Amino acid sequence: MCLATVYKQDDTTVICKNVSRIDVNGDELTIYDIIGEETVVKGSIISVDLANSIVKLNCE
């Protein structure tokens, strides 16, 4: 299983670790970690690096 770390693009703040899923609904992103905890942010996905398990978001 490949889990990702989600970062805020502007200042590389870690938003969530061990991310298994991200759902996109308009400008709302629902991020799920390996144990099912949800984090909801407003923004957009800037990049997804599957080789290094890094997701960068443009968010508030």
Structure commentary:
The protein has 60 residues and is mainly beta. The chain has one domain (4-59). It contains no helices and 5 strands. It has strands spanning 4-8, 14-25, 28-33, 38-49, 54-59. Strands 1-2-3-4-5 form a 5-stranded mixed beta barrel.
Which properties best describe this structure?
about 60 residues, mainly beta, five-stranded mixed beta barrel, about 0% helix
Strand content: over 45%
Amount of helix: under 10%
Please identify the structural class as seen in this structure.
Answer: mainly beta
Number of helices: 0
Distance between the termini: 29 Å
Summarize the helix and strand pattern as letters: EEEEE
Number of strands: 5
> Which stretches are poorly predicted, pLDDT < 50 over at least 5 residues?
none
- In which order are the strands of the major sheet placed? 1-2-3-4-5
